[in-house]
Amino acid sequence: MSFWSRIANVFRPDRLSREIDEELQSHIEEAIAEGRDPAEARRAFGSTLRLREESRDVRLIAWLESLRADAVFGWRQLMKSKVASAAAILSLALGIGACTSAFRLVDALLLRPLPVSEPEQLYALARQGIGPEGKPATFDGWAYPDFALMRAAAKDQAELIAISYSDRTDLTYGADAEMEKAYRQYVSGWMFNSFGLRPAAGRLFTESDDLKPGAHPYAVLSYDYWTSRFGRDPKVIGRTFRIGNDLYEIIGVGPERFTGTEPGTVIDIFIPTMMHAGVQHSDWTWMRTLARVKPGVAKEPLRAKLDATSRAFEEERSKGWGGESKELIEQILNFKLVLEPAAAGVSDLQNDYRTSLAALGVLVALVLLIACANVANLMTAQAASRSREMALRVSIGAGRRRLVQLVLVESAWLALLAAAIGGVFAWWAAPLVVNMINPPDNPARLFLPADWRVLGFGLVLTVGVMLLFGLAPALRASAVKPVSALKGGEDPHSRRRLMHALIGVQTAFCFLVLFVAGLFVATFERLSNRPTGFSPERLLTLETVTVSPQPPAFWDQVAEHLRAVPGVEKVGLASSALLEGWSWNNSISVNGAPPNGVLVYLLQASPGWIEAMRIPLIDGRDFLPDDTYPGVALVNQTFAKAYFNGEDPVGKPFEVVFSGGARLRFECVGLVGDVTYRNIREPILPQAYFPFHAIDAKGALRPTGQGTFIVRTSSSNPMALASILRREVPRARSEFRVSNIRTQTAIDQSHTVRERLLARLALFFGVVAILLAGVGLYGVLDYSVLQRRKEIGIRMAIGAQAGDVARRVTADAFYMVLVGAFVGIALGMATVRYIQTLLYQVKPNDPRMLALPALTILAVALLAALPPVIRAVRINPAEMLREE
Amino acid sequence: MPKPDSLQGSLDLLVLKILSRRPRLHGYAIMTAIAGMSDEVLRAEEGSLYPALHRMEEDGWICAHWITKDTGRRARLYELTAAGKKQLAAEESRWLLVTAAVNRVLRMA
Fold first, then answer.
1. Euclidean distance between CA atoms A196 and A199, whole angstroms
2. Which of A313, A460, A605, B96 could form an S-S bond across to A609 if both were Cys, CB 3.0 to 4.6 Å?
3. Do A566 and A475 reside in the same domain of the chain?
4. Which residue of chain A is at minimal alpha-carbon distance from B31?
């Protein structure tokens, strides 16, 4: 109790003093009442002030009380210069907030362990080697038969779990018209058990739910999906839904925090792996493999065992390959299996954003450091004006420790206020950045809990920041020598040296931030301005699915129907939209020769497709309605270069070589312009287009269950037509349904989402950095003019010109700016290789990339120097000298 | 002749003892009680008494509360707590032990 009363007393010091005084007073009165001489009684009492202080120290916690007093004093100091304090707090808040946001993202995506038991035992299996393009490559996709062999081989050392790449699928709980989308993931039946997860409702899969291909039409919902789609209705257990022609029964709901193993995607529906169409295919790599390694098992022997099993599988498989060259086969077989820690899960988003987030994290850390340097300079300048106060404190007996505390408490005020505002900023900004990841129709979903990890990081950051900008001024203030300080200072330049050094550091960091921002912006510009070879304006893509595969004639009917819709200019049909991410490739043989190792990329398209896409027809003709696959092909210019030595291929035949050795013969009927195929970053690939109408071995037309209508509209806002087209498709034929409508522009832009994000954020922080550095430079110059006004006055009195004065005032600072800029260039050159993978056709040693930040810094430095310089040359020597 | 402030660390003991006999005393009364009972031999200075009272209060041996006297003035009265009683017993036995030892030494020397 007494401990708390002592703490409580710290916060009511006046009342405590009053009480003590009153008690002592009543004592004296008592004495007088008993007849003692009042003067004698008071004298006997001695110094009541000393007595009060002594009692006070007993009745409260002395150090806490001194801290409280310092906090009150520090608060008054901040309030004295409100604008400067607000600027310091806001710039720190921005830095702390940005760093905390970056940490939240990095933590949520890359560091936070999955909510499963013993996540540190989880590893992901991947293969590393030299890819077909001759560059190092890593694949984490596996074929199920390979997985089954590896699982059996390693069952004593590790539990292997198959988890498919998540995909967004169409499903319905009722009629076909009520199709909706959900994220689906196929998982091994034993996954939940191995992860130590308990159902929130119903039951989870067990090993017996994942035994026979196609025999287990069950589904487990994620808790998140159960909540958002069904409002946690327990009656959902036993309901069925349909994907394509398969009916699934919901048997349970997963635990609350488990959202799958792919950070960035929240899985809606889990399905046993045995229900995947590729489960028996040796050449479908549709899933990742996680291994829960048993405690105490050595990794390397396990890895070697898995590697040997997998290699044997691949060797067996390669015997069925035709066409591929020996070297290529050898290259594929030589891929080495690796075990990568997967405590935080595995996702493409992690791979895509690992370097980006690290780069952004470094940028915001630099901005925070720049802000710290500003505040340190501010505190140093303030400490200078307070050196007399400090000297006085020392003279009347304040200890060094007490002075450090005094200044540090003031820093703590700044840091804490900044942390509070920064916390709000981080709370708001982190989800905003997540929303900017991935295109709007397919948003990344990342859980960003604000728990002890984030709070701990914020706390450590705040304390670190406080020490960073507060410690040097505090030590300096405490080292004050009263004699010299009261006389007017010993070495007036020493403070300025520290401030100038910080200016140099700021400039270097600022340069680095601007330089990297420039690289990101240039990358984004170049990528988004790269010609695609077709015209995406006013183009809508309608991904269309049918209840069951439909004859090609029906597809043509729908296309014909769409052509009649007002506002539609052209309609084409293709197996998928360009750049949609889908790809299909094969080897090619010309004149019966063995394939030359260059893969051709393929797409099926209807007559009129190239016209709708505005892909130029260079020679030959477009497809005719009767053209079929196999039979004729359109090829692009790169194809002609790769297989026909650049000669016109029109009229010439080639063969597509399938694995297994089967060959199909095509004749080139047309030569078309080059287009980007699956990725905007890639060089143009050799491409061939086949007719949408396919015939089987017997010559009958093959029905198709999915395709994409490409619609060129007359409106500059093609999405205005989306709902009409979505309605018109089933009107044309009721079996058809549009599952997704996007503009081609949106598809194109989805390839630059990361670059746009990086460019925007880096530019934002670049602006913040240059602003902070400018304010910092201004502050230091202003302070130095103020401090040297006597000297300037004397110089002017003895004939110095305005130019001399300006030079004298700014020379040191500008020298530091120059040094900082050069250090910045060196830093930029050194760091650029870490972000090389994020850049596109941007050379970091391009003089323009270096000149832009340098010029910006120079311009801002000149601007920041202007007011102090004007102030300096306006000093009136006569007045200045009279002041003394 | 100034009275010797010769309490020698026994101030706590005296205060506790007095409060155990006569609860609810204010500081002045404690002081006069020490003087009166010791026939003016022992004298607690104000400068030591009040810090001692406040320290013991914070240690939880005594507790204090304000009353308003007939004159309208407030006074702070002290009382022994349970912990104070224990402390008194411990101090008393220690005191007896020490004085007995001192007496033995005096007799033998």
1. 10
2. A605
3. no
4. A27
